[in-house]
Amino acid sequence: MRPHHVREVLFTSEQIxxxxxxxxxxxxxxxxxxxxxxxxxxxxxxxxxxxxVRGFAHHNLHPRIDFITLSSYGSGTESSGTVKIxxxxxxxxxxxxxxxxxxxxxxGRTLAFAKALFLQRGARSVRTxxxxxxxxxxxxxxxxxxxxxxxGDDFVVGYGLDYDKRYRELPYIAKVTxxxxx
Length: 182
Ligand code: IMP
Ligand code: MG
Hints:
Blueprint lengths: L3 E8 L1 H18 L5 E7 L3 H9 L9 E9 L10 E5 L9 E9 L3 H12 L4 E10 L11 E6 L4 E2 L15 E6 L4
Parallel strand pairs: 2-3, 2-5, 5-6, 6-7
Antiparallel strand pairs: 1-9, 3-4, 8-9
Helix pairs in contact: 1-2
């Protein structure tokens, strides 16, 4: 791990909670309850998913909930070009209305891969929901259907997001600042 600090909070736990509550209403207003499947991409989505679905009961939404583990090769702060499945879901997606849940949309490769995969498995519709939308040049053309907050081109951690496998437990989202090493 490069020498770094995690000091600058971008979104507090209260701000996240407020935005997530609004997203719950948004999703409930658009998605049909009948054959809804919430599919989280591990590991970054686990906290976001838990907060989202706990708001669903008020809306009489009782989706199936599962996760798939996807990884783009490499560690550090740059994602590479190839997405692979490291742990698959065995949910039957035929005719399902799927909402993919992920922590952050960056190059777009992960969401594009997951969306194509679930459509190929027979989903009737596939929507995408991310907490953070990084305003960068996408490697692929991808726009999320539900977005929490836009963020700049910084590396961020907390609320599920990691830097080299750490900091996922932070209840807020903070920026990672790297120290110059000489
Ligand atoms: P994409 O495939 O490039 O859109 O990348 C999406 C994945 O990269 C996310 O699911 C995260 O795991 C990871 N990622 C991208 N940016 C960040 C960040 O700022 N902090 C932590 N993880 C990130
Ligand atoms: Mg991830």
